[in-house]
Design brief:
One of its GO terms (molecular function) is ATP binding. The protein is of the alpha/beta class and about 425 residues long. An 8-stranded mixed sheet has the order 3-4-2-1-7-9-10-8. A 6-stranded antiparallel sheet has the order 12-13-11-14-16-15, with helices on one face. The protein has a two-stranded antiparallel ribbon with strand order 5-6. The radius of gyration is 23 Å and the shape is globular.
């Protein structure tokens, strides 16, 4: 039997009607049985839903934002389908369900669970539109609710996969369908043991593709992006980027760990463990080779630059003239874990612990409130974390020439710098 292939299309590849038509064009000569298509929310839909959540949390009117989001999806449908097509009442129904959920009370205490109930509507809308359009173009595919396949714990917004249950679901529910038809499903979403919606972390659709691939013993995963493949730096920031034709799993994992946005950080591990190659290709130029990530006997050491924006530098200073001990670090990490805050950089001195974290809604104030009695705390917001792998000294100097450096540390192969414009 032919092994399954997984194709994942991100938000940019389904951002408007032209993009959806291009997706269908890519699939026309590739689509067959034992094919799984994973799609993200359309364009910036997730951001718009987060804005609606933020307004709801502040008890402000979000009806205009909701109307704009609905019109965005309906306008795409108007370009893709005739007026009498079944997709239009289906979109209406999704927004009725969304407003029903938004009528429930929200607070800081239940925000993460509330977030997961709301945010997945982006993927549900997108997958339904794409599935209906493929069928309208005589590319018959089955729609699958990913929440029926991806089993997780109840760690809302950062749910951990129950691999055993997920594999069983994929083998018993998904595999029989794939023997007959290609299947289209959603990235990013799952469900907990009580059937409540969960999400796998922001930009988690890549991870969904890897989960399905590992659970189905797939032949490969292909992620379709608006870039030629994996580059050594973000082309939106740097003009002189270099394309990697191939990468070792370890190299790719290291890049994603430090924040390279081309692949979700959790994607590599399940694929590497199963020996499933990952291809990163351009939906703009689909015939180009892109990047292949797999086992390499000898990995290269090209300079790679990763910039993470919206970073916060928080420094904890002991207040009783004592030196930093393990208990101080444990105290801080206990709160970071409770708040689901990931440390992007850590540095300790005799009396200070400094951490760099992503900016997240009201998480910083909660962290400060919990630890203000144990430490003197200072913080800076709106920073950038620059990570350079295999740094060239001259290039590194250029990268910080216009910036104030707040924190810096280096190992043999990695340099990390917290910076802000002068």
């Amino acid at each position: 039997m032919t092994k399954t292939q997984i194709y994942k299309f991100g938000g940019a590849s389904v951002k408007d009607a032209a993009a959806v038509k291009n997706l269908a064009k890519i699939l026309r000569n590739r689509l067959r049985n034992n094919f799984v298509i994973v799609v993200s929310a359309m364009g910036k839909t997730t951001n718009h839903l987060e804005t609606i959540l933020s307004l709801k949390l502040k008890d402000q009117d979000y009806s205009v934002n909701s109307t704009i989001l609905k019109a965005f999806h309906l306008d795409i449908c108007k370009e893709l389908f005739p007026a009498e097509h079944v997709i239009f009442p289906k979109i209406e129904n999704y927004f009725i369900l969304l407003h029903h959920e938004l009528n429930n009370p929200i607070s800081k205490d239940n925000y993460d669970e509330y977030y997961d109930r709301i945010i997945g509507f982006g993927e549900l809308l997108s997958s339904r539109i794409v599935m209906e359009y493929l069928c309208f173009q005589d590319l018959l595919v089955l729609w699958q609710d990913a929440r029926e396949l991806i089993c997780t714990d109840s760690d809302f917004r950062f749910a951990k996969v129950d691999w055993e249950k997920t594999r069983r679901n994929c083998q018993t529910q998904l595999k029989p369908k794939l023997e007959q038809f290609p299947v289209l499903t959603q990235g990013f979403i799952g469900s907990d043991p009580k059937g409540r919606p969960t999400t796998l972390g922001r930009e988690g659709s890549d991870f969904t593709a890897a989960i399905l691939a590992a659970s189905l013993d797939a032949a490969s995963v292909t992620i379709w992006k608006d870039v030629p493949g994996v580059l050594n730096a973000d082309p939106k920031i740097f003009s002189d980027t270099v394309l990697f034709s191939e990468l070792d799993y370890q190299q790719a994992a290291e890049m994603t760990f430090y924040g390279a946005s081309v692949i979700h950080p959790k994607t590599i591990k399940p694929l590497a463990n199963a020996g499933i190659p990952l291809f990163v290709k351009s939906f703009i130029n689909p015939e180009e080779a892109g990047t292949k990530i797999h086992n390499l006997s000898k990995a290269g050491a090209a300079q790679t630059i990763v910039v993470k924006k919206d970073q916060i530098l928080v420094s904890f200073k002991v207040t009783d003239f004592a030196f930093i001990e393990e208990k101080h670090i444990h105290l801080i990490y206990e709160q970071l874990q409770r708040l689901k805050l990931r440390v992007n950089m850590l540095q300790t001195s005799a009396i200070t612990i400094s951490i760099v974290i992503d900016s997240q809604l009201f998480k910083l104030e909660q962290l400060l409130a919990e630890l203000k009695n144990d430490f003197e705390i200072r913080y800076n917001e709106g920073l950038e974390l620059l990570t350079v792998l295999h740094a060239d000294p001259a290039a590194l100097a250029k990268l910080i020439s216009d910036y104030e450096v707040l924190l810096e540390q280096s190992t043999r192969n990695t340099t990390q710098i917290v910076r802000r414009l002068k």
